[in-house]
């Protein structure tokens, strides 16, 4: 059984963490396969949006596999197979899996089916639209074990949430439910578990129908301008806006509106 399932349906990629028996924790195979999945999304022009979710009903991802990958990194045990050797040979793989080293400018939707703890909560911070089942739980429990949530949360969380909410999650290490997470701004919507995948797919179809170069320019500008001075940020915005305005898609949209039909965007 593969630890990460990758599916493509038209312009939508679906990435499914598939270790429900192990709380969908991140072991060597998950890191390697998830990195490969992100690269396919990044490099495949036919893919316009990705949905990341997990198998099972209890866990989205409960962080790193403490009995497997952590001892591997600390040297407490030696690699047992090619996948583990590949993980150890690539020191930047965690940054790429968490979309830190190479930000992904295509939209990513998270469908959070259960507990998102530790690295799982950090992974969802790398996504753009976050839909959670009302049974989902979110938390960064690392300080309870003497470590820190250093796979993105120390930088991303206080930029994505109001400061006081971010620091409450980081410093108490206490979990919150889906409704509280939405009130904090950590997630976009809360739905019943039986509606989760349908809602995520609905949003993916909506995003995929938009002009792909426009979507990528929007995300790129938001990510890259976030810490820039206003003058530089507006300059970047104008550069990206101008680039999109020169595309064939920018001409197709108004033409389709005038002709009273749906636009056919080709990413050109």
From TrEMBL:
Give the enzyme class. Answer: lyase
Task: Give yes or no: UniProt keyword Lipid metabolism.
Answer: yes
Question: What GO molecular function annotation could you give as one example from this UniProt entry?
Answer: enoyl-CoA hydratase activity
Query: Could you identify this protein by its name?
Result: Enoyl-CoA hydratase
Coiled-coil blocks: none
InterPro entries, sorted? ClpP/crotonase-like_dom_sf, Enoyl-CoA_hydra/iso, Enoyl-CoA_hydra_C
Q: Which UniProt keywords apply?
A: Lipid metabolism, Lyase
Protein EC = 4.2.1.17
Gene3D superfamilies, sorted: 2-enoyl-CoA Hydratase, Chain A, domain 1, Lyase 2-enoyl-coa Hydratase, Chain A, domain 2
């Amino acid at each position: 059984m593969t630890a990460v399932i990758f599916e493509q349906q038209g312009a939508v990629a679906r990435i499914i963490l598939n270790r429900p028996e192990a709380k969908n924790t991140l072991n060597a195979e998950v890191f390697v396969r998830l990195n490969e999945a992100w690269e396919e999304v990044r490099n495949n022009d036919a893919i316009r949006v990705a949905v990341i979710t997990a198998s099972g009903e209890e866990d989205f991802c409960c962080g790193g596999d403490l009995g497997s990958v952590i001892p591997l990194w600390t040297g407490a045990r030696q690699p047992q197979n090619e996948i583990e050797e590949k993980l150890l040979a690539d020191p930047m793989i965690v940054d790429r899996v968490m979309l830190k080293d190479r930000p992904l400018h295509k939209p990513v939707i998270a469908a959070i089916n259960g507990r998102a703890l530790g690295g799982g909560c950090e992974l969802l911070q790398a996504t753009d639209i976050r839909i959670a089942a009302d049974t989902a739980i979110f938390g960064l429990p690392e300080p309870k074990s003497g470590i820190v949530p250093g796979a993105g949360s120390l930088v991303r969380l206080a930029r994505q949430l109001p400061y006081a909410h971010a620091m409450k999650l980081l410093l108490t290490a206490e979990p919150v439910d889906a409704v509280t997470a939405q009130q904090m701004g950590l997630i976009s919507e809360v739905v019943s578990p039986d509606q989760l995948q349908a809602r995520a797919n609905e949003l993916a179809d909506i995003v995929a129908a938009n002009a792909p170069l426009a979507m990528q320019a929007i995300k790129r500008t938001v990510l890259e301008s976030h810490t820039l001075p206003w003058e530089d940020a507006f300059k970047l915005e104008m550069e990206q806006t101008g680039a999109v305005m020169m595309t064939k898609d920018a001409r197709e949209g108004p033409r389709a509106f005038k002709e009273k039909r749906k636009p056919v965007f080709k990413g050109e």
